[in-house]
Amino acid sequence: MIASPNSRRVRVLAGVAVLAFVYSYVQIRSRWGQPPFGYAHGYYESVTSYFSGPIYYNNTLYTEDTEGLVDKYYNSSNPCASFPGTDGILLVMKTGATEVYDRIPTHLLTTLTCLPDFLLFSDMEQQVGPYHVYDALAEFDESAKAHNADFDLYRDQKECPVSQKSCVDAKTDGQKAWNLDKYKFLPMMEQTWRMRPGRDWYIFAEADTYVFWANIVHWLRERSHLNPREKIYLGSRSFIGGSSFAHGGSGYIISGTLLKHLIQHHPGVVKQYNVRGANECCGDLMLALALEEYEGVQVRQTWPMINGEKPSTLPYGPGHWCEPILTMHHMNAEEISGVWQFEQTRKTDRTLMIKDLYHGLIAPKMQVMRENWDNLSDDVCYINPDPEAQERADGQARERQKNKDEMNEVEKEAWKSSENCRKVCASEDVPDDEDWDRRRVMARRAGDPATANNTEIAEDTSPSDATARDTWKSLMNEKKRNRTCFQYRWHDEVCCTSRSFKLGAPKTPPGDDDVKAKWKSGWDLKGINDWIEAMGECKEPAWKTPEL
């Protein structure tokens, strides 16, 4: 039977409908297994690939100057691989509520990630992710706080209904935070012993302190020859009113025996010094006074290993070179991360000395001169003798002004310009080794039987040239090692030089075009490199023996 045209049209339409249904089913079915928010799928995959991606990154510390010191790539897969065991050693870090979230996270991402245990104290109980920050003042006697203006900030912080940053300005309220900080030291000792008793050593540090753990553990266990069963108090010694104390920002170390005896045998010490705090300037001083009064213990000097400077302000040179470094102070988050990265990517596992910080972090940034920069030169100063200029100069520059009768001709002109100031250090430069050959040739051409070097010591004509050359080289190396001027700073007719070399920091540009108002800092790179060469390699780390 032949189907009618209408019947054929119906069958065709039915077939098209079936095919459309099947196509739609396939498309919908393929989407059933996808996340409900399809638009976020690509973003999710990109984030996942970032965290599960390469563990090797370009090392931002790697340059032509540092290629012999650090690896080209940063392997972040196992940051604690070479971290020392810290059994029996506890870190106690102190900070303030206004800066917890600015400073603590960087520590948690670097050195603290490798510590199995540590304590964090502040002037307010807080939480940073899974880490708890204890209030060092929580048990402070209420009657002692009630009428003490130093605790205004403490009360304001607790009443803040939002983030501390929204309520408290760390800059304008900096003095309030400083006034409150001094009350934390002794209560922190009491809480530390209660929560973590029985450790051999307790290392106390600020949130802007960096601890070199490989060095400090090795020194305490192998090199210091100190017994934690004795009463020991170590730090960078400072003085106020004739009383010595360990500078808190540099970090200090207390033996477990001393901490135990102070807290368990003298239960009234904390309360007594809480009241006394209103009449004292600093918490680290109060701690030292309590240790001397109750335990008869004074701080043992451990500087420069326990240090109050950071890489950009360390006075590199004599006394700050072959010494190992244990702590540094005034470190911001970026600097903490940078030093951690340097430790992680060093090509050697030998003891890290102060000179290593210079070569790895500072030397690549050194240059002949920087404007609007303060390189902290302040050991010897030369000031315009005019009374008005003398009055403008700051007190420290006047105190360190060299006596005019002791100045040479270069120094008498040093205050006139930055170029004149530069010549003070340049005048100490000595000839290079190849200069010996030039002098010998010139002397022979002149028919001179003796060659005089710049130390005005004439060469004996009898020894061989080789012997004479060695004598001359020895004299030059001696001058290089004993130089006293490495860098200079010039501003407003004041020239100051330094017996060490430091990088320093930017200085706010003056608001006018007055040449005298500009800060100019310069480095005698030849003199610096000559000194480093003359010093040679450190035969071994110059570990400090703590002394009273």
From TrEMBL:
Region (Disordered): 385-413, 444-468
Record keywords, A-Z: Membrane, Signal-anchor, Transmembrane, Transmembrane helix
Membrane topology annotation: Single-pass type II membrane protein
Major place of residence: membrane
Leader peptide range in chain numbering: none
Top-level taxon: Eukaryota
InterPro entries assigned to the protein according to its UniProt record, in alphabetical order: C1GALT1/C1GALT1_chp1
Polar residues: compositionally biased ranges: 451-465
One GO cellular component term: membrane
Compartment list: Membrane
Compositional bias ranges of the Basic and acidic residues kind: 389-413
Family membership: Belongs to the glycosyltransferase 31 family. Beta3-Gal-T subfamily.
Protein name: Uu.00g097170.m01.CDS01
Organism: Anthostomella pinea
